[in-house]
Amino acid sequence: MPTPRRRRGGRTVVAVLAAFGLIVAACGDDDDSDAGTEASAENDGDTGVELTMWTRSATQEQSQQFVDAYNDSHENQVELTVIPNDNYNQQVTTAAGADELPDIFAADVVFVPNFVEQGLFLDITDRIDALPYADDLAPSHIEVGTLDGAKYVVPHTLDLSVLFYNKDLYEQAGLDPDSPPTTLAELAEHARAIRELGGDTYGTFWGGDCGGCYVFTYWPSIWAADGEVMNEDGTESTIDSPEAIEVFDTYRSLWEDDVVEPSAINETGDQWTGFFPAGNIGVMPMPSTTLGSTLEALGDDAVGVAPIPGPDGGESTFVGGDSIGISATSDEPDAAWNFIEWTLSEDAQVDVVAQNADVVARTDLADNEFSSQDERVVLINELVGVGRTPFSLNFNQTYNDPAGPWLEVTRAALFGDGTVEDALTDGQETLTASLSE
Amino acid sequence: MPDQALVQKRRWWSSRAVQGAGYATPTAVVVAVFFLAPLGLLVWMSLHEWPILRAPTFNAPDNYTAIADNQLFTDAVMFTLKYTVVTTVVLSLVALGLALLIQHSRTGVGLFRTAFFLPGAIGLAATSVLFLGFLNGRFGPVDPFLMHLGIIDEPISWVGTPNLALFSTIVLVTWRFAGFNMLILLVGLHAIPLEVYEAARVDGASGWTMLTRITLPLLRPTIALMLIISITGSLVAFDQFFIFTQGRPDNSTITVVMVIFRQAFVKHDLGGAAALSAVLLAALLVLNGFLLRLVRHREA
pTM of this prediction? Predict the structure, then answer.
């Protein structure tokens, strides 16, 4: 039975064209906010509906694979639109204001709380809870997509931060290529030894002018030492903790001792994952999704993967990637859920995700026929269960946006004239001011 | 009596005032729909807390009082003013130089005119991406070229320091707009009667004297027009900074419009963004009013 199209009433759409750059907005009520909680028992939602879906370019490849496989095997057809990373948030904002959101859209998991709070996603608590594997969905993605007990998103693509190390350079530097660093102090030691090789071979690298890169690569070391970067509500920064200071101190000393590839200070995040595959960087935290291209560039035997350690041991990871949900204004929540539910099925997770050496969204599928062929992939999949995804309503404006306070704080701590402790103590205040706005 | 009424009616239809109003109506409608209505809505938004999907709530004057505490906005105002002054001076001098070089028709001048104007045909966003590639330290051609010439020893980060970032952006903007401004000045130059120069030459005036006593004074209205375009355009600069410097390094190249953009699309504070836009609009109105008055005064 086809799902009846719902009518939205009383929605007023207003577009504002102000002379200089502010375009937007709209208001209105929404009378189908509870539509998503009515899980369709008599209809599985695959009724030949044309669905629209948005994703950002960072996760284009996996989203496209999902869509192609789904379209080949279902009556419903999903039309995927890929939007450049940098424009994604404003596109979503503008579209929401004009009531033009697609049926389904993915979002960088750290921005999800804000989108949920803005009311952009449909409440799909009942649909998620009805899944037999609900408890196995990447727990950190589910947590940040939950507001007041209601769940709005599920994991779509997962991208974890892990250490990549170059085994060839390890051997040349007299290090054991099968013993990656287990503490941050060891990482620094290994990086220094590799820098001793001289020339344009450097110990490590990071995106020094990229707020999101710091979050992704530094925070796991703080978490691994049982430190915190924010309070539970994400309204107060605790970046002046002893654990954070130690992490920043370690990286700063590497920078001061010329162990870091010099362009790190100006790396805006556009090319930061391109340095390690070039073969002249010893060890650095990188996104797990770059494993395939790195193996291609350096060869299967040259690349080692390890968890990101804390200053004195422990391990953690930043569970990034994209979550996906049904837009609050979708006319086809049942059909949209049919697609989303399928992406979480064993068939899709194993045949689409795992086969492509990507990280599966379900912990119960971490060890599968494809991942078991490569111990690096098993390691990455297992980290999903122990990793964390930070929660804050003001995450983007505080940490990711280059004009936010985080980038200034990190750069002052690592490259500034003062001490790390002073920079992080001052930064704690400005970060908290932004988080609590 | 009926005839008189008819005459009165005809008079009413044929009165000049009504005809004038009829002619002006289409323009008035366009202005009302596309400028006044959005402007009214902008001001209305600025008086509210305006979420993306939920109903707005009246909160005046909070959005305006918050501007005073917005350090990023204050810094952006200072940077935008600095950028406007430097860009306007550099752009005007380069444009004037180019216009003087190619004002007379000689062999090959057409080629130069086209070459100077050509960058103006490229979009500003495309130009910004072009410069991003040219000045890239890893694969851009500029650094190797300068190193080959011996001007620099190692690759430079062209947006690595606040001054270099500003310098690079001004080079970008000058490359993009100098040809257009040159064209404006060229029209003004061609409007100056040749007889004036001939008379000056007969009196033994030097090239410098002719430039300062004849060309520049007679170019004043044209220069004023170019200044208005350049100043207004610089005060609302966005594309080149959003794409090329992204406010880097350390927020040193953030313009006023970038702050408005951040308020609306990063912080999702549409009311606050509307208030900032309203303030910028008011500032531009005052400034343009002042500049136009200056032009009229000079013309008089």
Answer: 0.83
